[in-house]
Backbone:
């Protein structure tokens, strides 16, 4: 067996804060001083000596990561947001350079996320196939030989000489995916976290990944979806805060990840400086996702009820306040909106909410969610008067569907909800 | 799906590049087809959904020439070394147009293609390079008009035009590419470049003998003046095509040296910044 990927002591350092500091002007004086020093800063940056002031904030997105992967293996990568998964993939596909360590990669690295990169709306489908193929590193001869196959796969044959700006978004995506799918890289990288498109498209991505793995190519698969990881990979690594915690058979790695507590990110805490001054007197404190047994978790089971708990402080009484959340899928489809004073009696009782600390808690019943990742946004407002606070993307969590309706068929189901419906089968005639 | 790719996969080593990174011309060679495709795309897209299409490549320098002729010939009566003013200015507007297009498109190329830069690997040099080369197509179209003008005004170039003109064109490309490399790399981090570009091109136009003849500059300032490589290019074009001026002298060598210095320093600066493009763009 030959080694396809060999990663040694890999580290990637990012500078944070520089951009944030730049916009935190308190006084006009700062703005002026900053402007005066701008040429100096540029000159320093050009000769490689960056500004000392902003030099202090470094973070290791990846630290001392080493592993080897043999050709033809499928490796899952699990970890929380910010664990370094995407950074690792970016380094492997040479989009960004590591700060430390080395990687050797045998063969071409392709990604199903590069779909449509370089597509130009004014060019026709045919022209874009050539353009996109070249960007992905295909030779012209290679594109020529696969052209018909790509067009067939994309199902846009009759529009192939139409500018892609006239395409529907589905056609556009199909064409883009068709090119990426025919790149046939030796190593395929799939980052489901960043995947776009509808459920159908994601299904296609995963299907393609399965095909690729069966042809004996090497695949790296990043996902928040433990059941997909379990289904598609035999081996996985667990990353946490940029470090590789363990590597093992997928089942073991997933168990380790779920039980080690790092998966339990299901809490969002707002620091004082995260809250815009305009929200006063409303001040968000924390948002928690709790499972059926009351534990704060990142992954809930669809067969258990889920509790959403929003804690906040009112520094002054607020009339007509309603606090609630939006639930949406990671693809941005809204599933529902709900407020704590939806019930008329609560609406009357809390007509004016006095100053103090509150928790608004809602239970989402069991058997609602489908498999995947969901996002919760929070909103605190007085209807028709003012919106105090809103964070459209306050927290995200995963749903595991083991035991959900229909899981005896090993196929993904479309739609954001997967309720347990009360089916009756009646025989009405012979 | 077909069987595994037949060629033996090559192993790529990824490690932090140190100091002035090697230019990695090998990768540029591997991706040479992409340069072609990018140029082709830029040219194709540029005049899509326009009424006049490619005619714009001619209209722009032609209108500028007419305005210049009115202002600087009829009103200001600037000396042109005995050459009819329209052909005198049009000869300069060609390389100038090439330079300005390359400068504007090239400097914005990385930022304009940030989705490519943050998603996939390819030698980043391709983006400014393609912008510069795309300008050559407009140049070629406008050149046909110049030939017409030269016939009309009965200006005959010397026979050596066949090797001198390409050399001056090369000098224009070197200058444009060098400046575009610097500005595109700086633009990734500091979008001030976008703000400075209109001003820079205007200022540069005044510092280049497009509307006027460089002979109006007094002798002692000629060397300083030729520090602007575009001055060398424009004078070279006029000399090669119209036989104006004294031909290549010390000022041309100064211009050429500066152009090459800008290109080489630009290449190294670009390469040393390349590793952080995806993170900072």
Residues:
């Amino acid at each position: 067996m030959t080694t396809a990927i060999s990663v040694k002591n890999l580290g990637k350092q990012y500078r944070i804060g520089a951009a944030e500091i730049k916009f935190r002007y308190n006084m006009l004086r700062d703005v002026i001083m900053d402007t005066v020093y701008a040429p100096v800063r540029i000159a320093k940056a050009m000769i490689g000596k960056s500004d000392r002031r902003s030099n202090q904030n470094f973070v290791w997105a990846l630290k001392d990561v080493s592993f080897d992967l043999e050709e033809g293996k499928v490796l899952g990568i699990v970890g929380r947001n910010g664990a370094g998964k995407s950074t690792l993939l970016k380094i492997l596909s040479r989009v960004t350079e590591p700060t430390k360590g080395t990687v050797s990669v045998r063969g071409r690295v392709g990604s199903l996320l590069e779909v449509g990169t370089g597509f130009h709306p004014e060019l026709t489908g045919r022209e874009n196939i050539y353009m996109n193929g070249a960007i992905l590193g295909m030779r012209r001869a290679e594109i020529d030989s696969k052209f018909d196959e790509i067009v067939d796969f994309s199902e846009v044959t009759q529009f192939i000489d139409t500018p892609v700006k006239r395409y529907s978004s589905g056609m556009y995506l199909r064409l883009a995916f068709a090119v990426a799918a025919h790149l046939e890289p030796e190593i395929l990288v799939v980052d489901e976290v960043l995947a776009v498109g509808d459920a159908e498209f994601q299904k296609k991505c995963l299907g393609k990944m399965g095909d690729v793995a069966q042809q004996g190519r090497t695949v790296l698969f990043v996902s928040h979806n433990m059941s997909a990881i379990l289904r598609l990979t035999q081996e996985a690594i667990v990353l946490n805060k940029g470090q590789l915690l363990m590597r093992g058979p997928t089942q073991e790695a997933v168990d380790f990840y779920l039980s080690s507590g790092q998966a339990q990110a299901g809490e969002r805490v707002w620091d004082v400086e995260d809250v815009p001054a305009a929200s006063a007197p409303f001040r968000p404190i924390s948002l928690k996702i709790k499972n059926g047994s009351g534990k704060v978790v990142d992954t809930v089971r669809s067969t258990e009820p889920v509790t959403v708990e929003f804690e906040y402080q009112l520094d002054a009484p607020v009339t007509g306040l309603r606090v609630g959340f939006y639930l949406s899928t990671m693809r941005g489809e809204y599933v529902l909106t709900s407020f704590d004073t939806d019930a008329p009696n609560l609406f009357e009782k809390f007509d004016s909410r006095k100053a103090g600390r509150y928790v608004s808690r809602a239970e989402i019943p069991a058997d609602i969610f489908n498999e995947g990742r969901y996002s919760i946004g929070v909103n605190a407002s007085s209807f028709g008067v003012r919106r105090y606070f809103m964070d459209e993307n306050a927290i995200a969590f995963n749903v595991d569907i083991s035991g959900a309706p229909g899981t005896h068929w090993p196929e993904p189901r479309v739609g954001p909800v997967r309720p347990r419906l009360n089916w009756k089968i009646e025989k009405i005639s012979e | 799906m077909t069987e595994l790719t037949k060629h033996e996969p090559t192993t790529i080593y990824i490690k932090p590049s140190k100091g002035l990174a090697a230019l990695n011309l090998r990768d540029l060679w591997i991706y040479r087809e992409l340069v072609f495709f990018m140029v082709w795309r830029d040219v194709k897209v540029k005049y899509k959904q326009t009424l006049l299409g490619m005619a714009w490549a001619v209209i722009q320098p032609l209108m500028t020439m007419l305005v210049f002729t009115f202002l600087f010939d009829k009103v200001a009566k600037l000396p042109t070394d005995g050459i009819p003013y329209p052909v005198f200015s049009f000869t300069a507007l060609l390389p100038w147009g090439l330079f300005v297009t390359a400068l504007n498109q090239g400097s914005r190329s990385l930022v304009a293609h940030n989705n490519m830069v943050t998603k996939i690997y390819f030698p980043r040099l391709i983006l400014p390079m393609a912008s510069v080369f795309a300008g050559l197509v407009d140049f070629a179209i406008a050149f046909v008009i110049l030939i017409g003008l030269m016939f009309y005004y009965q200006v005959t170039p010397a026979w050596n035009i066949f090797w001198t003109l390409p050399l001056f064109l090369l000098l224009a490309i070197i200058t444009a590419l060098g400046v575009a490399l610097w500005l595109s790399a700086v633009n990734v981090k500091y979008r001030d470049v976008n703000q400075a570009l209109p001003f820079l091109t205007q200022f540069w136009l005044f510092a280049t003998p497009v509307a006027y003849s460089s002979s109006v500059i007094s002798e002692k300032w000629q060397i300083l003046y030729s520090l602007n490589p575009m001055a060398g290019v424009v004078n070279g074009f006029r000399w090669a095509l119209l036989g104006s001026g004294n031909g290549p002298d010390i000022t041309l060598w100064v211009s050429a040296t500066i152009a090459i210095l800008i290109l080489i320093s630009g290449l190294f600066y670009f390469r040393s910044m390349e590793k952080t493009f995806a993170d900072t763009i």
Remarks:
- Residues 326 and 337 of chain A are 4 Å apart (CA to CA).
- The first strand of chain A starts at residue 3 and ends at 15.
- The longest helix of chain A spans residues 28-46.
